[in-house]
Amino acid sequence: xxxxxxxxxxxxxxxxxxxxxxxxxxxxxxxxxxxxxxxxxxxxxxxxxxxxxxxxxxxxxxxxxxxxxxxxxxx
Amino acid sequence: xxxxxxxxxxxxxxxxxxxxxxxxxxxxxxxxxxxxxxxxxxxxxxxxxxxxxxxxxxxxxxxxxxxxxxxxxxxxxxxxxxxxxxxxxxxxxxxxxxxxxxxxxxxxxxxxxxxxxxxxxxxxxxxxxxxxxxxxxxxxxxxxxxxxxxxxxxxxxxxxxxxxxxxxxxxxxxxxxxxxxxxxxxxxxxxxxxxxxxxxxxxxxxxxxxxxxxxxxxxxxxxxxxxxxxxxxxxxxxxxxxxxxxxxxxxxxxxxxxxxxxxxxxxxxxxxxxxxxxxxxxxxxxxxxxxxxxxxxxxxxxxxxxxxxxxxxxxxxxxxxxxxxxxxxxxxxxxxxxxxxxxxxxxxxxxxxxxxxxxxxxxxxxxxxxxxxxxxxxxxx
Lengths: 75, 381
Prior knowledge:
The structure holds two protein chains of two kinds.
Chain A: E1 2-5, H1 9-21, E2 27-30, E3 41-45, H2 50-59, E4 66-69, H3 70-74
Antiparallel strand pairs in A: 1-3, 1-4, 2-3
Chain B: E1 3-4, H1 16-29, H2 39-59, E2 67-70, H3 73-84, E3 90-94, H4 99-112, E4 115-119, H5 129-135, E5 140-146, H6 158-168, E6 171-175, E7 194-198, E8 210-214, H7 252-268, H8 270-289, E9 294-296, E10 308-313, H9 318-329, E11 331-332, E12 334-336, H10 341-347, E13 354-358, H11 365-380
Parallel strand pairs in B: 1-11, 3-4, 3-5, 5-6, 6-7
Antiparallel strand pairs in B: 2-8, 7-8, 9-10, 10-13, 12-13
């Protein structure tokens, strides 16, 4: 399961809006504490859409902090 | 009959959708923005995001991230003045400012070796941009200008002032408490670096909402510090905007109302609102000018301005005029000094103050005719 983290709540909420407007999947979830991040929300995406999501976020000027594969981390 | 002419203190009534939005938030959303990641908290966060997006659209800011949310215009002005000024800095401002500018400015001046110059406006409230240019010194960091006077409605020539401050490399802070929502604002075209607004006047929301536009690249020290829901492991205020300046829980239901208010304004159009308000303000000015005992303040009735009129009845205390208008005629006004003693000195109504009538785009022609007639009757007593 892929998640993107953000430097602020503002950026996380903007990301959700941008991703939905682009017709992609994205749900804001609480960030698992094992991930070090600035903001308490992360955007969970469909794994196959990762590149598309990062592209639309970049295009819209939404700053991200990191990308994590939660399944990997858990292994 | 009740006629509410105190819209410059706070607007009333609000559009129907503003009442509904606040009610809907309180009943059906309820979460605290930026503090959790459950659906209700996220929905609450979306309200704040929408507020930034709508306000950015209204004042033509390039990016919603440039809008910092505060609790009122005073909060935003403190944020700007105390955030920007350092020891040794000089400030240029005008004689038409509200105490929300003068008091924080005097506060930093007393504590922090900041000096300031008050440029004298004309008795009409008009501020000459050349006088502002002449007052700027090498150590001047900030120019603070009231967009629309809360006493007489006179509009400052912001674009001309913005050109001067941009050319001289000085920051321009605009107090838009009376103008955001009823007077066109273009922060980019006007060369504005910082703009303080309130949500409960012409933006048609409720008290406890306001904010500050910050042009990218302008750095402000936080004047209010605390929880942000982000970088919680840090013992100090995060540096990232908007969190750096938004410590503490936001007035989320209030912002739901402001969103509905700004949507209403964008649908009707700021220019349409301005035209409609000016038509009635002009009618009010012309009607009052014909009443023998009325002394009007501000520019000639033909000069367009914000929806604000100040007057006195010769031989009658302003407080008594306001009381009589409320008690005998149901007309709500504001009397006294309107938190702006220097404006009263400028227009010639200090220390007695004046009676202020302020309109919104819900004010009707009937209400204005009734008000003129009521003041005529009162003056004839």
